[in-house]
Amino acid sequence: MSERVVLAYSGGLDTSVAIPYLADQIGGEVIAVALDVGQGGEDMEVIRQRALDCGAAESIVVDARDEFAADFCLPALRANALYMDRYPLVSALSRPLIVRHLVEAAKRHGGTVVSHGCTGKGNDQVRFEVGIGALAPDLKVIAPARDFAWTRDKAIALAEEKGLPIDVSHKSPYSIDQNLWGRAVETGFLEDIWNAPIEDIYSYTQDPSAPRDPDEVVITFDQGNPVAIDGETVTPYQAITELNRRAGDQGVGRLDMVEDRLVGIKSREVYEAPGAIALIAAHQELENVTVERDLARFKRSVDQRWGELVYDGLWFSPLKNALDAFIADSQKHVTGEVRLVLHGGRATVTGRRSEASLYDFGMATYDTGDTFDQSLAKGFVQLWGLPSRMASARDARLAD
């Protein structure tokens, strides 16, 4: 019985050429699976037909925008996920979703092999293959660009030889990956880390230095999830889309960083994530108001580890699942409203309110109405500093 290959299909050169190449190499059928995760660009029906025209036995297109927003972007928001304290996990979030659908397609269509278009240098090969191994360890994986040492020249030659319906005349100087949560740009002149980004590489954001009026927005959260914008109820997808537009118009969410890749090299990446950055800024501030101090301190370390696990391709790992349970419990009281001013490339919190607030005006004020008993403070300070004083006295005694 011949193999059936389930291919993560993007519609681009490499995955289009992979269809006839895999069919020849394996002697079986290729099932192309493409997901709409809010990346924009070509019509998904055009992509579906292209896969068939390239020789796919079946071509599956999934509108996964709402699923991506609710099941992947919102968990990242509740975890304030910023890899290296900056990057909101744009590509890393979409890969486990794609893996989920690849595995489902393999089970439904009798696939025995899964294939993707990643090279051996990037993080995505790990995210795909570790995820597939967690969900369906019996499936084999082939990555043509990595396993068979493909080059762009070889891919173009094969496309021309097979007469594939792909325009190979245009080559972008950049490698770009984008979805609902953001946009990543690398390679080309950006590989010289002294070169500044140029305005032409940006798509999700406008020039933050251009003169414009500020935009004030109020985001309503319910247990850590955005549920309304300026009083209008929204779905997770609508919340992110709206803030991508409004924050993007103000130049919010541009990042230029050298990051530590999982494979051990450093790479220069330019990101745009206006909605993600604005939402995380608002969510963090609401947590500051509603989450108890020790829980908040510990959650910050959990958030960092959660982001590292997702970046490293361990979405389906036991530790990630356990951290999800902790984060979910921490969000029970993260309900309320946050006011942001979007302007000049920044999302600035200017107001917050919540029925679950731990901020007590009477305890905090220095004016009339102060309910804080300052007479208790002297003894508290003495007891709090007692271990340090005892250690200092011990050190002085031993030094003598």
From TrEMBL:
Classification via Gene3D superfamilies: Argininosuccinate synthetase, chain A, domain 2, HUPs, Single helix bin
Q: In which pathway does it act?
A: Amino-acid biosynthesis; L-arginine biosynthesis; L-arginine from L-ornithine and carbamoyl phosphate: step 2/3
Q: Which residues bind L-citrulline?
A: 87, 123, 127, 175, 259, 271
Which intervals hold domain Arginosuccinate synthase-like N-terminal? 4-165
Residues that coordinate or bind L-aspartate? 119, 123-124
Answer whether the UniProt record assigns the keyword ATP-binding to this protein.
Answer: yes
The entry's localization annotation reads: Cytoplasm
> Which reaction equation describes what this protein catalyses?
L-citrulline + L-aspartate + ATP = 2-(N(omega)-L-arginino)succinate + AMP + diphosphate + H(+)
Q: Which residues form the Arginosuccinate synthase C-terminal domain?
A: 174-390
Q: Name one Pfam family in it.
A: Arginosuc_syn_C
| Recorded family membership | Belongs to the argininosuccinate synthase family. Type 1 subfamily.
Q: What is this protein called?
A: Argininosuccinate synthase
Whose protein is this, by species?
Paractinoplanes deccanensis
